[in-house]
What does this fold into?
Amino acid sequence: MLNERQLLILQKIIDDFIETAHPIGSRALSKKEGIDLSAATVRNVMADLEDLGLLEKTHTSSGRIPSQLGYRHYVDHLIMPSISKANFNKMKKILVERMSEKENIVQLSAELLSELTNYTSIVLGPNNTNTKLKQLQIVSLSQDVALLILITNTGHVEHQKIKLHPKISFSDIEKVINILNEKLIGVSINQLRAHLDYEVLHLLKSNVENYHLMYEELQSTLEYQDNMKIYVGGSANMMIQPEFQDVKKMYEFYTMLEKEDELIKMLMNYPEDLTVTIGDENQIEAIKNFSLITMPLELHRNQMGTIALIGPTRMEYRRVMSILRALSHELKDLY
It folds into this structure.
């Protein structure tokens, strides 16, 4: 257990390194506001913290920098997340203005996070398990093409063009849409294809002449994959961090961002609470020099996802953690 003096010195060193990315020596640290200790005393405390594995000595300077263990102690014991009023107001304003675009909320969240933090954001959106069909409409575009409009209970609207066979009259098309609305409203969109085969097909046979000419089009149109949506925001932000001038490390990082399956698997393994993993605590090799902060994301009717930020180990933990908490809370309330 660290004493009060050790906690003070550790916090001052980490706060300074987060801001400057430069090691700090005992003399410079003793002149910091709130440090009423001599340079010799500070040097001794720094040596003790180094012996405990909380600080590291650089090869280019007598200054110290935080170790991964030091950051872990900092996150667990020394900071109280808080968000500035300006950041909170900006976030809420953007969310309120864009809430009509509910189908784009996952992408919007990624963009907003990267803008507020200057780190790389990853947002894993909810899957389609609880998304249900609310209405189907059809609009004739020409003699042989129509537009099928699918509306879900989450407000998502999707348009699909379908080919019309000359032997299918528009009155028959209207019959098909009426049958579909009668039998498919309230059905999960992942189950539309199955319900089409088992509950709709026999009605089409009984009520629509030449029904088979339209059936194949409906099969492909109503085929939904149960995929998670993943968006990455601010991927170039990492290039401005002084720690990441190593071309090999950055190549590995950007290669990882392109592997959506690995990102989804990584984010789905985190617990349902704000979690900070630092450096070697990360399971993926490409981010063992980074810190990853994740937070559950709850949207419409208990649909769950994950929001995450990747940054250097000297990231602004206090601010980032508070922004993630605030965004998760606001999305749940506004959606």
